[in-house]
Design a protein that fits this description.
Elements lengths: L1 H14 L5 H25 L7 H9 L5 H35 L12 H14 L4 H25 L5 H25 L5 H9 L8 H20 L1 H7 L3 H6 L4 H23 L5 H13 L3 H25 L7 H19 L9
Helix pairs in contact: 1-15, 2-4, 2-14, 4-9, 4-12, 4-13, 4-14, 5-6, 5-7, 5-8, 5-12, 6-7, 6-12, 9-12, 13-14, 13-15
Length: 353
């Protein structure tokens, strides 16, 4: 299903080469929403305990007659599916914001050390034997603290270029990775180390509705803000000199965009662990389909990111007795899809894509 959806979008891109970028964006967004509705319902139905479509819709109309199905859907599958969609949105959007702000197509949401810092926070909480809620809280706070530390270190060099901030992120991220290795060394090899390792590979297994009520306002607010200021993000992506000639306070807007991207990344990693590829691949796919205008790429990143992550979650929990780590699923299928799109568009890719 993962491959079929993406191959369909690739075919649509080939057939719509005579359409304008706006028309393409509308077509891809509309089809993406339809696919998401289908994928979301499928995620609620499939699993170790399968529910037929007929019983699913009967349960919606008469939940009292299907107590077991209702309990599985409402208490287990609904929270994790919503969290999966929100995580996909957050990582895809933050990846796009980082890539545009730093004018670098190879950066991902963990650019400034957010994922490494969140990993340290979660590993420390697991080592101390804290609850899952506190693990998420530690991961979130350590992710934010890591970016603050990165920003402070970059200020020490008194250089306003983006490269200094990126290098500071590499330094802090490397330090956090070293701390994480030390925490793993201290962890019990039979129990705690396995928990830390599995958390770092990403999973929605422990998702509950309280997580949704925490993550939804953050992702929703950040998404609305990026949509409102999408034209300013376009100008910031042109660089400091171009932004200043157009009357935009480059430093203020760049800092705000980085703050939004960081908040999205830290919140998603806190509840899902470290998930690779989504934040790197989805923005690339969207740009290849509709160009670099953020007025079009931001909505499509939201739709495509939600689709891809929900499908990845379905794959991770339905094909083996034990759940497959999400990073393994997203890495494997993300590579295949990205290569396929690059092959199809190989003659039309430009430096601006």
């Amino acid at each position: 299903m993962f491959i079929i959806c993406c191959m369909g979008w690739i075919a649509m891109d080939k057939l719509s080469h005579k359409l304008s970028q706006t028309q393409k964006a509308v077509i891809f967004a509309s089809s993406g929403i339809v696919v998401f509705l289908f994928v979301f319902c499928t995620a609620l139905i499939v699993g170790r305990y399968s529910i037929s479509f007929e019983n699913f819709f009967r349960m919606i109309g008469d939940p009292a007659s299907y107590p077991m199905e209702r309990s599985i859907v409402v208490n287990l599958r609904l929270p994790r599916t919503i969290i999966a969609a929100l995580t996909g949105i957050a990582l895809s959007l933050s990846g796009l914001l980082y890539q545009e702000t730093f004018q670098n197509k190879l950066v991902s949401p963990d650019l400034l050390g957010v994922s490494s810092g969140s990993g340290v926070g979660a590993a420390l909480a697991i080592l101390l034997g804290l609850s899952s809620a506190l693990i998420s809280l530690f991961a979130f706070l350590f992710g934010i603290i890591t970016v603050i530390l990165t920003t402070v270190i970059s200020k020490v060099f008194r250089n306003r270029t983006s490269m200094i901030l990126i290098l500071a992120g590499i330094i802090v991220g490397g330090c956090m990775s070293a701390i994480l290795s030390f925490i793993k060394y201290l962890a019990d090899a039979e129990t705690t180390l396995a928990s830390i390792t599995f958390w770092l590979m990403g999973s929605f297994e422990n998702s509950v509705m309280s997580d949704v009520w925490f993550l939804l306002p953050i992702v929703g607010t950040c998404t609305i803000l990026t949509l409102i200021f999408s034209w300013r993000i376009n100008i910031v992506a042109l660089g400091r000199e171009e932004a200043q000639t157009r009357g935009i306070n480059y430093s203020v807007y760049r800092a705000a965009i980085i703050a939004v991207a960081t908040l999205l990344t830290a919140s998603s990693v806190a509840f899902a662990g470290t998930i690779s590829w989504i934040g790197l691949v989805v923005p690339h796919i969207v740009r290849l389909l509709v160009g670099r205008n953020t007025r079009k790429t931001i909505p499509l990143c939201v739709i495509f990111g939600a689709n891809f992550m929900v499908i990845a979650d379905i794959i991770s929990r339905c094909f083996t007795a034990a759940e497959i780590p999400l990073s393994a699923v997203t890495g494997f299928f993300g590579t295949i899809i990205f290569v396929a799109i690059l092959f199809v568009r190989r003659k039309t890719i430009s430096e601006r894509d």
